[in-house]
Amino acid sequence: MEKLKQKILNDGRVLSENVLKVDSFLNHQVDPFLMKEIGDEFANRFKNQVITKVLTLESSGIAPALMTALALGVPLIFARKKNSLTLQNQDVVTAEVFSYTKQETNTIAVSKKFVNANDKVLIIDDFLANGEASLGLIRLIEQTGAEVIGVGIVIEKSFQIGREKLENAGYHVESLARILSLKNQQIQFVTEEVL
Ligand code: G4P
Ligand code: NA
Ligand code: NA
């Protein structure tokens, strides 16, 4: 997605060889116009599939996931990271997600009220690094008996192992920007073949 790549080049900051800061449009301040286009693009990339719900993980996945849900005309569900007050006393499915970036494990949860065996779920997230968040969301969906249609990622760090893990597990991944390298303070994208 050309507009997203331009935004990353113009506004992104390389914090290290592994971390890209995009807090001016995605992770802190959010650009609603860009999010709208991101939602439309995901809806277009998955247009041949039946999707009944969009699922993300709080908090930074919510903006792009909401716009995708709007474009598809289906509800958005965001998995919660901590035992929230509103999740108490509900029947939930949970999964453990280990973050290499943060070196911590979070329990994530979704109420069974909102995902059931008839659902066909599209997962959306802001970043794909090692794939642990997406795999955790997949484990949640599978406990409900619903089907995972695919995974849509705003920014994929292609030099990390997430995409490979998801594809090896049989899941369809669509990323709107694929970063090949952040070495030497340079943002390099994967070259996509233009057909
Ligand atoms: P993984 O799910 O692919 O294995 O990634 P990892 O655990 O390493 O990522 C942990 C958190 O860091 C996630 O946010 C993820 O979106 C974010 N992250 C990973 N790499 C980058 C990066 O290069 N730049 C930025 N800006 N974020 C990155 P989170 O903890 O869920 O936080 P939230 O922002 O959703 O609240
Ligand atoms: Na994040
Ligand atoms: Na995230």
Automatic annotation (TrEMBL):
It catalyses: XMP + diphosphate = xanthine + 5-phospho-alpha-D-ribose 1-diphosphate. Xanthine binds at L20, N27, K157. The keyword Nucleotide-binding does not apply. Pathway: Purine metabolism; XMP biosynthesis via salvage pathway; XMP from xanthine: step 1/1. The chain crosses the membrane at residues 61-79. SUPFAM superfamilies: PRTase-like. Its main location: cytoplasm. InterPro entries: PRTase-like, PRTase_dom, Pur/Pyrimidine_PRTase, Xanthine_PRibTrfase. Its EC number is 2.4.2.22. GO terms for cellular component: cytoplasm. It is an enzyme of class 2 (transferase). Keywords: Cytoplasm, Glycosyltransferase, Membrane, Purine salvage, Transferase, Transmembrane, Transmembrane helix. 5-phospho-alpha-D-ribose 1-diphosphate binds at A129, N130, G131, E132, A133. GO terms for molecular function: xanthine phosphoribosyltransferase activity. The keyword Transmembrane applies. It is found in: Cytoplasm. One of its GO terms (biological process) is purine ribonucleoside salvage. Residues 43-158 form the Phosphoribosyltransferase domain. Signal peptide: none annotated. Homodimer. Converts the preformed base xanthine, a product of nucleic acid breakdown, to xanthosine 5'-monophosphate (XMP), so it can be reused for RNA or DNA synthesis. Belongs to the purine/pyrimidine phosphoribosyltransferase family. Xpt subfamily. This is Xanthine phosphoribosyltransferase.
